[in-house]
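From the shared-data thread, chain only:
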Amino acid sequence: MLTAYDYPMAHAVESAGIDMILVGDSVANVVLGLESTKDMTMDQMIYHACAVRRGAPHTFLIGDMPFEAYQKDAAGSAGNAARFVHEAGCDAVKLEWFDCALEAAESVIRSGIPVMGHVGLTPQTADKLGGFKVQGKDASAARALIRQARDFEKVGCFAVLLECVPDRVARLVTETLSVPTIGIGAGPSCDGQVLVTHDMLGLFERYKPRFVKAYARMNQDMVKAFEAFKDEVRDGKFPADEHIFKIKEEEFKNIRRAEDDGGV
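Structure, as tokens:
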């Protein structure tokens, strides 16, 4: 699974044969420059999800429920999830663990919409977890994390995402559940893996989580391209002859003749 937030990125992800696309609320950080994913609204998420669906019409698409969509009012979760399905064409939604996560997940699942649960580091409530840190590092915290994953399965979630979890704890969760686990910073024993696409392409360099592998350095490539464009414009090398449109000489003479006659 990879994230996507717009048409060209989604098209590229689908062309690569990736199984699932997450329209992540990480768009807040890597595209919009916001500090917190909590700042994303439903309208913003639907806007991006619609663009992604147009770019990837055949890939299983998951809409990431923003904070306001379910954590402020768990009772409204089903209605907001329905917007992802009916307005943006998503196949499922993802929601993070919080105090009323099971109530919210059950509500959405009862409405007929598949839900992926999310445990471990949950960015929307990271302030309550001590910041962006690995979760489940001691026995008590690990057991609580395992219970959360089991509870998500019990209420009907089709998969559980594990973020920033020690590898052996993630393996225990994966062995315990009958539904797939998707890892991000959770080691190789999960059933699948996800990365934020802007991280793995080197497009976002404000910070880099330890679990990210950069498969490209596209930000550096873009800067080089922009510099080359700037230099060629200043040196008069762009646009060159192959980049411009021509007008027939006789037509141009007619224009000049008309202008010389006072524009008549």
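The two ends are 64 Å apart (CA to CA).
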